[in-house]
Amino acid sequence: MSNDTLSDDIALRIGLAARTLPDADPARLIRVLADTVGLPPTATTLDTLRVKDLKQAADGELADLDADVLKSILAILKGETGQTVAPAPPIEPYEEGDMPGSLRVACASNGGDELDGHFGAARHFLVYQVSPQEVRLIGVREIAESGTVEDKNGQRAALIADCQVLYVASIGGPAAAKVVKADIHPIKDAAGGSARDRMVALQRILGEKAPPWLAKAMGQSPEERVRFERSEDAA
């Protein structure tokens, strides 16, 4: 190990990158960096890193992580995420009961109106109320985590426990299991884009065209859901 000291900038990068780990443990990341670029890491040595390096280093310390999480870690370590985060859209007024037969949908986002978040690394969830007639953004739920959180995926699932559907750019198997256990239907949309545009698209499959699982979440009666299934079979 070199006698050089770790710069404040690199220390900040490591701390932010560690937050994307399931256990938010910087020690895991330090072990990987020690094996790949040596300690202390510098901006120059971090620039040489690849996703493959992170996955294989330190006897596969991070091998279980989703590729999108590793890409996020790499971008943070290289200082490529320093741009200003776009603010979330303004929240629209909503009272319980305003939109009968509607769904509550969470979208994992890293800023603005974008549906671009990995479930385990997104900055916040945009929460929409969606009915066949309208879409309202009713909440922006920030994700505050620390190294003391033992079940990061469970914490995030609990944050959106009142939602019936979750849109994410990506999600790993264990995290998806937590979401499903919370009775939330996850939908992976790797293409991303405007969250509101996705909600408008969702409107088109609501009502009479809603699949049974979606109709159930909207509160339609069993008779209505059976009627839909029969009409689909006859089509």
From TrEMBL:
Residues annotated as domain Dinitrogenase iron-molybdenum cofactor biosynthesis: 112-201
Entries under InterPro entries matching the protein: Di-Nase_FeMo-co_biosynth, DiNase_FeMo-co_biosyn_sf, NafY_N, NafY_N_sf, NifX-like, NifX/NifY_domain
Domain (Dinitrogenase iron-molybdenum cofactor N-terminal) ranges: 6-86
CDD domains: NifX
Parts forming coiled coils: none
The entry's keywords: Nitrogen fixation
Highest taxon listed in the record's lineage: Bacteria
Pfam families the UniProt entry points to: DIMCO_N (PF16844), Nitro_FeMo-Co (PF02579)
Compositional bias (Basic and acidic residues): 222-235
SUPFAM superfamilies registered for this protein in UniProt: Nitrogenase accessory factor-like
Region Disordered, annotated ranges: 216-235
Family, per entry: Belongs to the NifX/NifY family.
Name of this protein: Dinitrogenase iron-molybdenum cofactor biosynthesis protein
Organism of provenance: Thiocapsa marina 5811
